[in-house]
Amino acid sequence: MAQAPAFIGALFIVVVGLWRSLGSDGALTAWSWIFITLGVPLVVFGALNILKPATLTLEPGGFTWSSWRYRAFYPWSHIERFLVAPSKGVGDRPRVAFNFLPGQVPNKVQATALNRTINGYDRSMRNDWDISTEELVVLLNDTVEKARAREAG
Fold first, then answer.
1. What CATH class has 55-152?
2. DSSP state for residue 151 in the 8-state scheme
3. Cα 81 from chain centroid (whole Å)
4. CA 24 – CA 17 distance, rounded (Å)
5. Confidence band of 78 (pLDDT split at 50, 70, 90)
6. pLDDT at position 49, please?
7. Cα separation of 19 and 21, whole Å?
8. Which residues, including other chains, have CB under 8 Å from residue 17's CB and lie 6 or more apart?
């Protein structure tokens, strides 16, 4: 529920901005329409993130990372390693990043290569869970190693 304060802040800005932009007769002004046009999608997006937060499910064969926008399953056998990546927003926690083994990128191969060149990792996910990013990275790397040991027999 790390996104709730941001959502409440955005909602407050939209409501106050809309109220302050009304004309003296209560009519909608140009500024009112700007607040409606930009604010409503922001509020809807924020509400969806709160109502259906991202989940991370660890399974014997891999992990599933999903939210209301996407769902992706990554087999442990495709993962090289997990690492801690810098946050992408002010006040955000560090992100959980991961790299694929050579030849194991499941989709968006060119975008993944560009991401590794620019950021130093293939993919990343926001850490919205009740565990520090550092602890989560250790847990995920341990899980990858255990999966490799099972496969090796």
1. mainly beta
2. H
3. 19
4. 14
5. very high
6. 64
7. 6
8. 31, 35, 39
- Angstrom CA distances, 48 to 3, 19, 42, stand at 10, 24, 10
Mean local confidence (pLDDT), 100-124: 88
Position 142, amino acid: D
The span from the CA of 127 to the CA of 95, in Å, is 6
Angstrom distance (rounded) from CA 105 to CA 90:
30
Half-sphere exposure of 120 (CA within 13 A, CB side): 7
Which SS3 state, helix, strand or coil, does residue 56 take? strand
Any residues with CB less than 8 A from the CB of 1 and at least 6 apart, and which? 50, 53, 128
If residue 7 lies in a helix (H) or strand (E), which one and from where to where? helix 4-21
Contact criterion met (CB below 8 Å) for 79 and 100? yes
Please give the model's pTM, rounded to 2 decimal places: 0.67
* Sign of the torsion formed by the C-alpha atoms of 127, 132, 133 and 135: negative
Domain regions of the chain by residue span: 4-51, 55-152
- Tell me the C-alpha distance between 37 and 70, whole Å: 25
